[in-house]
Amino acid sequence: MVKAIVSLVDGLNLKDPEAQLEITFDNEFLIIVEHAYKGFKRNVENTFKIPLANFLESTLTTDKDMEEVQKSVIGRGIVGGLIFGPAGLVLGGMSGIGTKKGKTLQVYIVSYVSSSGDINNITFKMPLPMVSVTRKFDQILKKNMQLVLRSEAALKILGDMEDQKSGPSETIL
Question: What separation in angstroms does the CA of 76 have from each of 37, 63, 70, 73, 134?
Answer without folding.
Answer: 46, 20, 10, 5, 30
